[in-house]
Amino acid sequence: MFEALSGKLNGVFDRLRRRGALSEADVTEALREVRVALLEADVALPVVRDLIAKVRERAVGVEVLKSVSPAQQVIKIVHDALVEALGGGAADAGQRGIDLAAAAPVAILMVGLQGSGKTTTSGKIALRLKGREKKKVLLASLDVHRPAAQLQLETLAKQVGVASLPIVAGQTPLQIAARAMDQARRELFDVVVLDTAGRLAIDETLMDEVAAVKLATQPHETLLVVDAMTGQDAVNTARAFQDKVGVTGIVMTRIDGDARGGAALSMRAVTGAPIKLLGAGEKLDALEDFHPDRIAGRILGMGDIVSLVERAAETIDRDEAEKLAARMQKGQFTLEDYASQLKQIGKMGSLSGILGMLPGIGKMKQQIEDANLDNTMLKRQAAIIGSMTPKERRTPDIIKASRKRRIAAGSGTSVQEVNKLLKSFDDMSVMMKRMNKLGQKGLMRGGLAALMPKGMQGPGGGRRPF
């Protein structure tokens, strides 16, 4: 998400940095380009006007034009304005994430149009509450219109390991909701997720049904699920649900497929409801908290190291990582260790998503795409290692031409790919040996340059300038 907007904004700011001292005309010209970039990213016009007005008011002043680093000051002002537009003000601080501060069972009402990912999101939320919050969750489908909708939610409940309301044919949504709340009270559930029916478009029947269920169940959270791929239609949907039903938060799905991101920037300002969660893929654990400051950082190419560390902490096996660290300190690193690392990286999600959280990576996007760094490559490398014998994985030096042909045939790859893998492993092994030889003090003195191959070092051992 935000790839197109991020690229355009970073182009504007790069030109500002090259100018050094800024005049008021420079700032005005830059803001004109920022305005165009926001509109092209499908941000609602009133939101663009408000954001540009705030930035202009703060940027065209003595504190910027006479600043030691005026371009950086403008970027900081744009960053702060983006955070506000995304719902990062002090008033929104307590509205992030799902609010469970109510007497059990806490009802969460899921609403939205058909095809927005509402049912899948219900399953994701159940998994999240069960794993992170240690809550006992009941899933209930109120969708009696879409064929097999109730069976779909029942299947999702089994996959995430939570209970689902038994299906009783012929009941109305209100009857199902009443039965779900009654079962939750009797069986001491902490949370009930009520998945309502959707329509292909907003109509009175849909709104009346949702409003009736809400009145009957008095949910603590009413979460609207919208598809980020629909752009301004998602904003219009959110506005209609907020006006006619009232929502406490928004979940945006398919953000991994929307390069513009205008809907996210418009949502808070247009509806008044905060974005609480982001769905970034089909996997049931692909659900992220929405942090306005981190999203603003990604848009401006500042990265999102905090989210990357959090994702790593959730997915990486700590015991396995500590064992590997101990082996690396002793200079021991085999292809089995390499395969383990590939597996851990794969758990964290797509490589492009991981790299997108690193500062400044946007400028390298084309090189990354040209290098074909995706999860398919990780799987192919894992397949190659899996086709080796235990002896070959422990002592890869014995892998010569005939063994390479056998490994390539067994993994469904080519000899060239086997060679690339062995070369990557050799490079990593050399780095591990250097780390072991230098020790902590040596690394502190030489930094990353001390780990680079000699061909990559400049005079005196420093990094060669590019």
From TrEMBL:
EC number, UniProt record: 3.6.5.4
Subcellular location: Cell inner membrane; Cytoplasm
Domain (SRP54-type proteins GTP-binding) ranges: 274-287
Top-level taxon of the source organism: Bacteria
Protein known as: Signal recognition particle protein
GO-annotated molecular function: 7S RNA binding; GTP binding; GTPase activity
Residues engaged in binding GTP: 112-119, 195-199, 253-256
SMART domains from the UniProt entry: AAA (SM00382), SRP54 (SM00962), SRP54_N (SM00963)
Membrane topology summary: Peripheral membrane protein
Protein family (similarity comment): Belongs to the GTP-binding SRP family. SRP54 subfamily.
Major site of localization recorded for this protein: membrane
Cellular component GO terms held in the UniProt record: plasma membrane; signal recognition particle
Purpose: Involved in targeting and insertion of nascent membrane proteins into the cytoplasmic membrane. Binds to the hydrophobic signal sequence of the ribosome-nascent chain (RNC) as it emerges from the ribosomes. The SRP-RNC complex is then targeted to the cytoplasmic membrane where it interacts with the SRP receptor FtsY. Interaction with FtsY leads to the transfer of the RNC complex to the Sec translocase for insertion into the membrane, the hydrolysis of GTP by both Ffh and FtsY, and the dissociation of the SRP-FtsY complex into the individual components.
GO biological process: SRP-dependent cotranslational protein targeting to membrane
Subunit structure: Part of the signal recognition particle protein translocation system, which is composed of SRP and FtsY. SRP is a ribonucleoprotein composed of Ffh and a 4.5S RNA molecule.
Reactions accelerated catalytically: GTP + H2O = GDP + phosphate + H(+)
Entry note about domains: Composed of three domains: the N-terminal N domain, which is responsible for interactions with the ribosome, the central G domain, which binds GTP, and the C-terminal M domain, which binds the RNA and the signal sequence of the RNC.
Cross-referenced PANTHER family: SIGNAL RECOGNITION PARTICLE 54K PROTEIN SRP54, SIGNAL RECOGNITION PARTICLE SUBUNIT SRP54
Keywords, in A-Z order: Cytoplasm, GTP-binding, Hydrolase, Nucleotide-binding, Ribonucleoprotein, RNA-binding, Signal recognition particle
Catalytic EC class: hydrolase
